[in-house]
Design goal:
eight-stranded mixed beta sheet; Aminopeptidase; 16 strands; elongated; Alpha-Beta Plaits; about 35% helix; alpha/beta
């Protein structure tokens, strides 16, 4: 049976896949700078015999045709970029680049897709349809590599009927995967505020327009937008994450800069909140005698899993792994540019368990000690191959 053959190949090639992950982890590249990573992916596809094209600078798109290529078309996606984090793990595959690390597991995502590609290509005479392999740049940084790939036609010629993406989950035990239909992850917008006042001596605040005081009131006030205007049943968060102003104890600065992030699950509320943020910030700052420059950089949309596709994928996951290994994913206010794909075609974004508390592998993503139980790679590659070869969806 095809399932057993995929599982056998995933197990057989697991050491090779882990070596690929080690290479990628040791050589991370930041968003839109994935030049060597892209070349590495291209070499892997070439060695496997899979045709590909390059788009969006460093993005790579491969195509595997099984029997009756037009019967079903499924896309599988992985992201390739790393984060500006200094790795603290003491492992043989530690990042060789100061201040750059695969702290979000994109090395695992890329490895799983390369592994699935190898398996699918080897078994292409035993499944029907076409699988499009999408290796995208820049998931961690606006405007999002997915948006660039879509603009350049990644979802055309041929048009996928569905797209799947996986993400490592350090809160999910090794051996498990998790799914969720509907709203899965939040939109993400960046907020940039500059407050301009009148600087002066800290001992004579009456002669100044105190930007520090204005910023303090504004930070507290903005939280009322969430607590008093949002539907309590709709998750949303506004966090001011940076305050820059002043350089000594006895000078009130003439300018303070704030930065932050706004997350929402509901797209209608999202853009209504933008209006509230602009109005409240402007009126409060002006009422205290200062001026304001405010910019909201509209980022990724929410990730919405097609409910029907989610049910199909769950059923296939239970078949491949066993029902006891398939769980429900919680809603998360993290963001993912996979949301751009799900706005265009039915999509399913699921989680791959990588935690192993007994081995001390529990660190979260975006931390300098993030790592995985590498037995997850065999599971991830096999599961992607199974979905790519097996899902039939015409929803």
């Amino acid at each position: 049976m095809l399932k057993e053959k995929i599982q056998q190949l995933a197990k057989k090639y697991a050491p090779d896949f882990i070596s690929i992950r080690h290479h990628l982890h040791a050589h991370p590249e930041l968003s839109y700078q994935e030049y060597e990573t892209s070349k590495f992916v291209q070499r892997q596809l070439t060695e496997t015999g899979i045709p590909f094209s390059v788009m969006a600078g460093t993005g790579v798109v491969g195509l595997i045709e099984g029997k009756n290529p037009g019967r079903r078309i499924v896309a599988l996606r992985a992201d390739m970029d790393a984060l500006p984090i200094q790795e603290e793990n003491n492992v043989s595959y530690k990042s060789t680049k100061d201040g750059v690390m695969h702290a979000c597991g994109h090395d695992v995502h890329t490895t799983a897709l390369l592994g699935a590609a190898r398996i699918l290509h080897e078994l292409k005479d035993e499944w029907e349809g076409t699988v499009k392999l999408i290796f995208q740049p820049g998931e961690e940084k606006n405007p999002g590599g997915a948006s660039l790939m879509i603009k350049e036609g990644v979802l055309q010629n041929p048009v996928p009927q569905a797209i799947f993406g996986l993400h490592v989950h350090p809160g999910l035990q090794i051996g498990q995967v998790s799914f969720r239909g509907g709203m899965v992850m939040a939109s993400a917008d960046e907020i940039y505020i500059t407050i301009k006042g009148k600087g002066g001596h800290a001992a004579a605040p009456h002669l100044t327009i105190d930007t520090i005081l204005v910023a303090s009131h504004l930070i507290v006030s903005l939280q009322q937008i969430i607590s008093r205007n949002r539907n309590p049943l709709s998750p949303s968060v506004l966090s001011i994450t940076s305050v820059q102003g002043g350089h000594t104890t006895n000078v009130i600065p003439s300018e303070v800069k704030l930065m932050g992030t706004f997350r929402a699950i509901d797209e209608q509320w999202r853009f209504h909140a933008h209006e509230l943020i602009r109005k409240q910030a402007t009126e409060l700052v002006h009422s205290m005698g200062a001026e304001i420059d405010l910019h909201i950089d509209v980022g990724y949309p929410m990730v919405y899993n097609n409910e029907a596709l989610d049910q199909v994928a769950r059923a296939e996951a239970r078949t491949y792994m066993g029902a006891e290994h398939v769980e429900e994913t919680e809603i998360r206010l993290g963001a993912e540019d996979f949301g751009y794909y799900t706005r265009q075609i039915p999509g399913c974004f699921y989680r791959l368990g990588v935690m192993n508390a007994e081995k001390g592998i529990t660190s979260g993503v975006h931390t300098p000690t993030f790592d995985i139980d590498e037995s997850a790679i065999e599971i991830g590659a096999g599961m992607m191959a199974w979905l790519g070869s097996h899902v039939v969806f015409n929803g």
